[in-house]
Amino acid sequence: MEFGATPLFQDVSYVINDKDRIALVGKNGAGKSTMLKIIAGLQQPTSGTVAVSGGSTIGYLPQVMVLSDEHTVREEAEQAFSHISQMQERLDRMNQELADRTDYDSESYMVLVEKFTHESERFQMMGGMNYQAELERTLMGLGFVREDFDRPTREFSGGWRMRIELAKLLLRRPDVLLLDEPTNHLDIESIQWLENFLATKANAVVLVSHDRAFINNITNRTLEISCGRVFDYKVKYDEYVRLRAERREQQLRAYENQQKEIADIKEFIERFRYKPTKAVQVQSRIKQLEKMVPIEVDEVDNSALRLKFPPALRSGDYPLICEGVRKAYGEHVVFHDVDLTIKRGEKVAFVGKNGEGKSTLVKCIMGEIPFEGNLKLGHNVQIGYFAQNQAQLLDGELTVFDTIDRVAKGDIRLKIRDILGAFMFGGEASEKKVKVLSGGERSRLAMIKLLLEPVNFLILDEPTNHLDMRSKDVLKDAIRDFDGTVVVVSHDREFLDGLVSKVYEFGGGLVKEHLGGIYDFLQRKNIESLNDLQKPSLSTSSTMVSSVEEKTGPSNRLSYEQQKEQQKKVRRLEKAVEQCEARIGELEAAVKMLEDQLATPEGAADVSIYERHGALKKQLDEAVNAWEEASLELEEAQS
């Protein structure tokens, strides 16, 4: 693929197989999004071919898309099943024709009966009768509630409308799913749901993401675009990072050996160039030099860039105290009775589903919206606040470089180019005017500006949405070294890990404090995701049990008999889950065998195979539902 004279990448060849979970990685500008567009057929390569096997479908979620405002959430999501609706209409027309006609013995009537039977079986096989249930499950998994289904899409923010587009894409069940930064608009709960969906229900997936935990939990293969070529690793991201480091070491050694060999050859040529007795050897060496293929070393930025916040006044011991804080919009109470105290130097996370009040409490702290209750900021508190709308406050007439040059002080001015490069503004990008930047670029620029201002209390609302992995590492290191107080609203587990020492969980109008890091919090909840935070069995009931134990001591715990009964129940449920998994495996193998037969001309003409396939698919859906129910019961029993 060429833009101008320089190829973005060349001689790229690879195959995407069924059930591949591919992480597409590379530095910014390497061509990851372009590669996805080429696979999706939205962009033509300069040369070469992209071959898609017959009947295979491709679904593509870009970072930015044009969204419709004409429908409700349900109607918009139902567009994923437009092919089913069209099939339903055809079946209704054929059914009416069969009812109206009386020439039962004619050949054309029998052809119509056969066609109707064939179409009905296909309709059943494609999930025509139960797609509404799947639609609702998917929308709720992505964070919507039933009350949202009949609301117009124009009432939702851009992030929520992107979720609707993602739901449509997932519901279409394409053979190859191309996702470009899908987690930018999701909270932790929805990310975990999407992880589970992609791991268990998707076919082939090609994923571009800067969320390290997300791609690690999903992918089993890594394609890296580097030096204009693609390197294929049959391992997940973490393992790829290790193998890549080893490969680069080998490249460096080979490069150094080659450079030494070139130097030796050149020295020989120069020494004996004018000696007639050595003319043959000299010509031989010159040809050898011309034939030598230069060894390339992967592009890696090894500059040890560390940012440190400039010194600021020391704040009071308690930068933030909330007592009985409540916020409501009319009848809707966002949160109530919020009591929290943040000490100087603490780094805390606000987590929970979107809409539970994380950003609202931040706005209360900033004094942007009114609230009830008592909220006090400590002595000498200087707040540095990052939210997505901060990007709109930048001066559009300044260049990227000038924007940072105006806030940089002291030695840091010498590192402005390095800092801009770390946040993807290297080279000519630093001379762009702010007014021509995209929303993501403005957010990154606002983040750099904040890093250079003297503050002692940082409040960061989703700071990692538009950052690549290197930029996130730079930001994380800067915050870790920051000696002030930090509140981070984020869904990025990898970013929060090792950064925060306390987690505030927002949900059901309450804000609960949990000591420890983000994975301590998840482990204590006995869940791998935050999907279950709202469930009484996992949150309120377990909290009640622990509070009773605190007050009355261990004597009120389960008796020995009750514990034995509980263990028996867990073992029984574990066995049920295993049986369900085995049953699903058998059915999937049987379905795959029939689908292979249907892919042949003989099989496609055999109506009985369609019947068996439809019956097996129905059994498979039932087995998956049984597995989900058993797994949920097991989680509740274990907790």
TrEMBL record:
Keyword set includes Aminoacyl-tRNA synthetase: no
Which Gene Ontology terms cover its molecular function? ATP binding; ATP hydrolysis activity
Which parts form a coiled-coil structure per UniProt? 563-637
Q: Where is the ABC transporter domain?
A: 1-252, 320-533
Swiss-Prot/TrEMBL keywords = ATP-binding, Coiled coil, Nucleotide-binding, Repeat
Pfam families in the cross-refs: ABC_tran (PF00005), ABC_tran_Xtn (PF12848)
Q: Enumerate the InterPro entries for this protein.
A: AAA+_ATPase, ABC_tran_Xtn, ABC_transporter-like_ATP-bd, ABC_transporter-like_CS, ABCF_ATPase, P-loop_NTPase, Val-tRNA_synth_C_sf
Tagged with keyword Repeat: yes
Q: Where is the composition biased (Low complexity)?
A: 538-547
The entry's family comment says: Belongs to the ABC transporter superfamily. ABCF family. YbiT subfamily.
Which protein are we looking at? Probable ATP-binding protein YbiT
Organism field: Paraprevotella clara YIT 11840
